[in-house]
Design brief:
Order of helices and strands of chain B: EHEEHEEEHHEEEHEHHHHEEHHH
Distance between the termini of chain B: 48 Å
Radius of gyration of chain A: 21 Å
Strand order of the largest sheet of chain B: 3-2-6-7-8-9-1-10
Number of strands of chain A: 14
Number of helices of chain B: 12
Oligomer: heterodimer
Number of helices of chain A: 8
Number of strands of chain B: 12
Structural class of chain A: alpha/beta
Number of domains of chain A: 2
Shape of chain B: globular
CATH architecture of the largest domain in chain A: 3-Layer(aba) Sandwich
Low-confidence stretches of chain B: none
CATH topology of the largest domain in chain A: Rossmann fold
Largest sheet of chain A: 6 strands, antiparallel
Shape of chain A: globular
Helix content of chain B: 25-40%
Number of domains of chain B: 2
CATH class of the largest domain in chain A: Alpha Beta
CATH superfamily of the largest domain in chain A: Nucleotide-binding domain of ferredoxin-NADP reductase (FNR) module
Mean pLDDT of chain B: 93
Strand content of chain B: 15-25%
Mean pLDDT of chain A: 92
Radius of gyration of chain B: 22 Å
Structural class of chain B: alpha+beta
Largest sheet of chain B: 8 strands, mixed
Strand content of chain A: 25-35%
Helix content of chain A: 10-25%
């Protein structure tokens, strides 16, 4: 006769769906409807060791309201603080704008592939931003500037509708003064006559690009949907290979870890396999943009 | 794999013994349909049942459950209603369905809500006789070699019982005296004859060769719009599909408004708001786009990722869709139509 066995039970495991408490350390308006948030984990050691890649995102939770994905605007080269640049555009952000400094929010992440820094290092880089596209690309911009000697030539092209709608105006004006990159800023319109630089579409700035080695250049774009077609055409005109043209995509997400299904595109999940994709990905995966 | 024999007459006695592991659930009849119900009386079990209305996914990903409680900005995880259970009477296709969910929920970033329920649940398979809506032979999910703790196979007066896991071995030992290890050549012949006879009963067959390529080449086909013109976007296909796993979350506050729960509940890509983002942009506004996503998941994406479709051929979409859009019809239409690239 065989003896009866003890039946095993489940062991506890870490839960990736649980938000972590973080404190809003500072917040201020960048424009009339876009606000900048500096957020820090409650534990200082955790805050200082927190590591994200440029191009990744976090899920922000407001208890009683819900949860949504947001690009990280800060760079891991400046540890201690997580920064977000958030437009007041829906139910969750309406509430988030009511949160004051020192309020506690729930945050989990970072998620997503981020930019392929290991491939971009040593290469020339060209970043093109339109409007709110600064939110995810500021992370890459600051990362390259903080590790400037690891990268080749660097162009940063920025377009906004009007001077008032330009995000990070003071910061980008200061970057424009640096001589270790070429920073070109433009606005479509200047109703108050306060804009000191060139006016017109961001694509007009491409004429000032010179000396890039296209085969060794990564070109990254983020902005309103209408912008992509024209900017990508300029990248291709420069001779930059399609797989070195990068963009970061938005989708509805409820988990960030490939479970809820909402960001599925073909056989990939935007949250796991993206949000950073190349123009080649876009061409060969239908439905991406 | 270890195999044993159990006399059919001892089935009810054995089912009763399983209750010492946990709650016993199995197919029971509801009108002319079947559902997985709790077997308070083991004689309620419907051994003849084919597909249940809702697949066994409801035990691992309940239609609605709480993920955590929040109170004054503190988050406390909750694992409610997780208890040891025995699911009896799962057919091979449904076991394949669970194995597909395992890939999704236990692979990268394991989902603790799924994992805990899965680990607390014993799975006992039961062989079945297909009807005219079963497609499992075409999806190669008509037999199981794993994914169960025990599997009962038809053998005239007996069941041939495969022991598929260490837990399965534990379950046999709950009433070891009922089982015999004496499996002879005659039993083997009966088992093979039964399997051949069963295979021949699959009437709804299709060929999945090159299905991802067919989907790719049919991306701009008018078929999607034709189907969308009929589709009611009711989402029933997602509710009954054993491998549909999309969900939404929402916070439900108590009356105090300072505390509440985050709830996770089934969603369907057929719903209008499925890909709607803040600001009002909808990435899948057209019904045809959403239908295409549903079928991309079943017939293309999963094959690309895991080498098999995420359709297990259970026939629930055939049984359920009010306008007769289902896997069999979509496959046939895709294969028969003119290809537009």
């Amino acid at each position: 006769m065989i003896a009866k066995n003890q039946i095993h039970t489940a062991a506890p495991s870490a839960n990736p769906f649980m938000p972590e408490q973080m404190r809003i350390v500072r917040r201020y308006d960048l424009t009339s409807d876009v606000r900048f948030f500096q957020v820090r984990p409650m534990d200082m050691e955790r805050a200082l060791t927190f590591a994200n890649k440029p191009g990744q995102f976090m899920m922000i939770s407001l208890p009683g309201v819900g949860e949504a994905p947001f690009s990280i605007s800060s760079t891991p080269s400046r540890p201690g603080m997580l920064e977000f640049c958030i437009r007041k555009v829906g139910r969750l952000t309406d509430q988030l704008f009511k949160y004051k400094e020192n309020s506690i929010i729930g945050v989990r992440g970072p998620y997503g592939n981020g930019f392929p820094l290991e491939k971009m290092i040593g290469k020339d880089n060209l970043i093109v931003v339109g409007g709110l596209g600064a939110a995810p690309l500021r992370s890459l911009l600051l990362y390259i500037l903080d590790n400037r000697d690891q990268f080749g030539k660097f162009y940063f092209l920025h377009g906004a509708k009007t001077p008032d709608e330009m995000l990070f105006r003071k910061e980008f004006f200061e970057i424009k003064e640096r001589d270790d990159l070429k920073c070109l800023l433009t606005v479509d319109d200047d109703p108050t006559g306060s804009w000191p630089f060139q006016k017109g579409r961001v694509t007009n700035l491409f004429g000032k690009i010179e000396g890039l080695d296209p085969d060794n250049t990564y070109a990254t774009v983020c902005g309103p949907p209408v912008m992509y077609k024209y900017v990508i055409a300029e990248f291709l005109k420069l001779g930059i290979p399609k797989h070195q043209v990068l963009m970061t995509l938005e989708r509805r997400m409820h988990c960030g870890i490939g479970k809820c299904g909402h960001c599925a595109i073909g056989s990939i999940y935007t949250c796991l396999d993206g949000p950073v994709f190349s123009y080649w990905d876009v061409l060969h995966m239908k439905d991406l943009i | 794999m270890k195999a044993l024999k159990l006399k059919k007459g001892d089935m009810y006695t054995y089912l009763e013994s399983l209750k010492s592991y946990g709650e016993l659930w199995g197919p029971v009849s509801r009108g002319d349909k079947y559902v997985y119900g709790k077997l308070d009386n083991v004689r309620d079990v419907a051994l003849e049942a084919l597909r249940t209305i809702i697949p066994p996914k409801k035990f691992f990903v309940p239609p609605r459950f709480n993920m955590f409680r929040y109170s004054d900005n503190k988050f406390t995880e909750t694992f409610e209603d997780i208890k040891p259970r025995v699911l009896f009477g799962l057919h091979p296709c449904d076991i394949h369905g669970i194995m597909i969910l395992d890939e999704l929920f236990l692979d990268r970033f394991p989902d603790p809500y799924y994992k805990k329920r899965r680990e607390a649940t014993a799975i006992i398979g039961l062989s079945c006789t297909p009807d005219d809506k079963c497609m499992a032979r075409s999806t190669n999910t008509h037999a199981v070699e794993g994914g169960f703790d025990l599997a009962f196979n038809e053998l005239d007066e007996d069941y041939l019982v495969w022991v598929g896991s260490s837990l399965g071995d534990d379950l046999v030992r709950l009433n070891i005296d009922l089982f015999s290890e004496d499996i002879n050549t005659g039993d083997l012949q009966k088992y093979l004859a039964w399997r051949r006879k069963r295979n021949a009963r699959y009437k709804l067959n299709f060929d999945l060769t090159g299905m991802p390529d067919i989907m790719e080449l049919s991306w701009d086909s008018s078929l999607w719009q034709e189907l969308a013109d009929r589709c009611l976007a009711c989402g029933s296909c997602s509710m009954v599909c054993p491998t549909c796993n999309c969900y939404n979350v929402r916070d439900v506050s108590d009356l105090s408004l300072s505390s509440g729960v985050r709830e996770r509940y089934w969603d369907s890509c057929m719903n209008m708001e499925y890909a709607l983002v803040a600001g009002g942009h909808n990435f899948r506004e057209a019904r045809a786009e959403r239908l295409k996503l549903w079928y991309t998941h079943k017939l293309k994406a999963f094959i690309t990722e895991y080498g098999k479709p995420s359709c297990i051929g259970c026939g629930r979409c055939i049984d359920t869709c009010p306008v007769n859009i289902n896997v069999a019809e979509v496959i046939r239409s895709l294969q028969g139509q003119e290809v537009k690239v």
